[in-house]
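Table S2 (text version). Query chain:
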Amino acid sequence: MKLGVDVFSLRQQGWTPIQHVEYAHKLGLDVVQFSERQFFESLDEDYLRPVKVRADELGIEVNVGMLSICPSSTIFNTKHGTATEQLQAMIRAAELFESPVVRCVMGTNADRRTGTPLSVHLENTLKTLRSVREQALDLGIKIAIETHAGDLPGRTLAALIEEAGPDYVGACPDAGGVFWSAESPFVTLEYLAPYVVTSHVRDTAIWKDPAGAWIQSVAMGDGNVRIDEWSRLFVEKCPQASYTLEVITGGAPRLIDYVSPEFWDVYPETLAKDLAQYEKLAREGKPFTGNMLTGPMGGMPDEYRKAFVIQERVDFERSVRYCQEVLGLGENWKQK
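Corresponding C-alpha cell output:
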C-alpha cells in the first residue's frame, strides 16, 4: 500500500510545494497530499506544472484537496468563490496532477452547535457535490469527503456518499478526528470501507474522565487505540487507497464530554453499539506520558516556536519510520 503525507503534518515548516515533494522522496514516501488550497500560492498551471514535473522525476504521486465545500459551514471560506467554483478549480488541479482524488470536508463539529440544522449543512454539501458530478465523472476523479473534526461520524458520511453517488464521491476517514464525535476509528472504518479512496491517519491516546474521555494526538506508535490493528484492517479492506499520514503533535489533551446530555443533543444519530466500542477504548487507555511539548502556537516567543517546528518534523519522521518498519507500509522505501 502507498504511504503518504498530508502536508498539514508539516504546516509549520514554511516549505514550498516542491520542497514538500523532495522531502517526501527523501523519506521514501509514495504520495504527497496538499490537502488545502493554502499550500499553493496559485492554481495557475504555470505555478503547478513545475511541481508536477518534479514529482514525476522523483516518482511521487500528488493528491490535492480543499477545506469546506458546504457554504453554510462555520469554516467555509468565500475568498476563492462559491463552493462549486472552488471545488471545480480543485478538480482542474487534480487533473493536472493526475490526482485520483480531491479531498474536502463538510465542516467541523461546531456546525452542529449553530442555529442551522445538520440537515441543512448536509443538503448544501449535496448540492455542491451534484454541481460537479459530470466534471468529476468525465475525469475519473473522486471527491473524497473527510470525517473532519467531528463533523460527520462514519455512518452519517456513508449515507451522504450513497445519496450523492459513490460513482464520483468517496471517503477519507480521519483516524484521529473521529474521536471528537465519540466514535472509534474501527467503527468509522466499518461503515466507510466500501467508499474509502484516501485517508488521514494519526495515532491517539485516550483515557477515561468522569465527564467522558480525554484524547490527545500523538506520533504513530505512541497511542493506545490499537493503531496497528486498525492499520491491518485498513490495508485489508481498502487496498486501493493510500495510507496518508496527518500527524499532529504539540496539542494539549481535549475533553470529549459524552457523559453530558448536551453532547448527544448534537449527535442524535449515534448508535449505542458504536459508542460501546469508543467506551471500551477509553476504559482501557491511559494518559500519554512520553516527551512532547504542548501549547498554542499563537503568541508564543520565537524561541518556543522554533522548538515546536523541530518537534513537528521529528515526530513526523518517527511516524514514517514506524509505518515503514513496524507496519510494513509504503512502496518506494522498499526499493532503496
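Notes on Table S2: The beta strands are 3-6, 31-34, 61-68, 101-105, 142-146, 169-172, 203-209, 212-218, 243-245, 254-256. DSSP finds eleven helices and ten strands in the chain.
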